[in-house]
Amino acid sequence: MPSISFAIFRSAGVRFGLPLILAVLMIFSLESVLVSFSPYRGLLLVLPYVLLSLVILLSQPFNQGKTALTALLMMVAFYIIQNYLQSPLSDNQTRIIYVLLATLLPLNLLQLHLLPERRLFSRFGTGYLIFLVCQLAWGALVVNHFAGQDLSGLWDSYLYALPDISPLPVLLILLYLSVGLACGSAILKRNHGYDQAIFTSLLFAGITFSAFDQDFISSTAFSVAAVLLLLNLITCSHELAYVDQLTGIPGRRALETELKHLGRTYTLAMLDVDHFKKFNDTHGHKTGDDVLRLVAQFMQRVRGGAEVFRYGGEEFTVLFKGKESNECIDHLDQLRQDIANYEMVIRQYDDRPSNNQKGVKMRKKQSKQETVTVTVSIGLADSFPDHNPAAVLKAADEALYKAKKSGRNKVSQ
Ligand SMILES: Nc1nc2c(ncn2[C@@H]2O[C@H](COP(=O)(O)OP(=O)(O)OP(=O)(O)O)[C@@H](O)[C@H]2O)c(=O)[nH]1
């Protein structure tokens, strides 16, 4: 059941909460995990490279440029940690590199968060790579310049840390918290896959720099982050394939997959918005889109184990597994009534028709909150006597036609 099993990873709550839960688990189980995996510790040192490379490669076919760049940033950061930050932080040069990296990584992630989504292999991607190389060169110059100088004044003032808690300067802890807050709230607000990729990377990089004295903290944290980035990519690709972009419910492909795995008993219902063409002509295509989203929302509340899909255009499908049509008709009639009784507030869009007389009339008497109601017609059929899903779908379509013929806003069998 692809549409069901992955839906959970697409929810904003899981996109935000899962990295946090895994971070807490990692912190509390790090030592015991390292003891259990002590013979394979060498593997942990290459695991982030392998997983992050996979993320970069898999980002390409799904046009997830931001996720690819996030993984690239993490890979560069991990390389620097492994090759330049393996001596104690009391060493001046190591400390400069540590602070520079711990500062530039969240700033780069914040920048990615603010940039639009683009492909990695594009002018945008090339520009970003040049920018990254320039930062590395600048960083190398800064390190060379300041390595031999006494920076104790800087460490004791702006970059003051509380060594009993963390070697990370307080100012940088605040930077991680504020960038984390911005990226975390973006997940809850717009729920994009790349927001989770950036938030996850920030969280696990923050943990790494905060607990930098812990053995294997970077390889463990960067590996967990890379696994989450991979999961995020798989979820995004699943979303592209199975979820209808407009309504957010599973689309036709998901329905077709489900129809191949049905048992003997099931009911299918076809739902169609009444006079939708007229509605679009009067209120505009964008308001029509709002209606489709609204209908999808109502459909998701249907009880009785209903699975809902957008069939295409203004048509939707409801699937009840293990149920005959008599057991489903009340649920569908309730849906029909709920939609018919709902007064939808019309949002103002510029595409509302200017030459349509009805549209002009409506706008003239428009109050601040203009509302409309829509109705739907539903036809349903179950898998008796013919178990073939195509035949059941056809029968549901014929029942829908009957509902339309008998005056619309009806449920027919
Ligand atoms: N806004 C919007 N309209 C769509 C979308 N997909 C299809 N439509 C419109 O849906 C309308 C369907 O019209 P018809 O098939 O004539 O059906 P109807 O007007 O609902 O009439 P009845 O089904 O007989 O009640 C067409 O005008 C399409 O342009 C969409 O994604 N968004």
TrEMBL record:
UniProt KW keywords: Membrane, Transmembrane, Transmembrane helix
Entry keyword annotation includes Membrane: yes
The keyword Membrane is annotated on this UniProt entry: yes
Catalyzed reactions per annotation: 2 GTP = 3',3'-c-di-GMP + 2 diphosphate
Protein name, as recorded: diguanylate cyclase
Record organism: Photobacterium alginatilyticum
Lineage: Bacteria, Pseudomonadati, Pseudomonadota, Gammaproteobacteria, Vibrionales
Domain GGDEF: 264-413
Pfam name, any one: GGDEF
EC number(s) recorded for this UniProt protein: 2.7.7.65
Coiled-coil ranges (or none): none
Domain of life: Bacteria
Residue spans crossing the bilayer: 12-30, 42-60, 67-84, 96-115, 127-147, 167-187, 194-212, 224-243
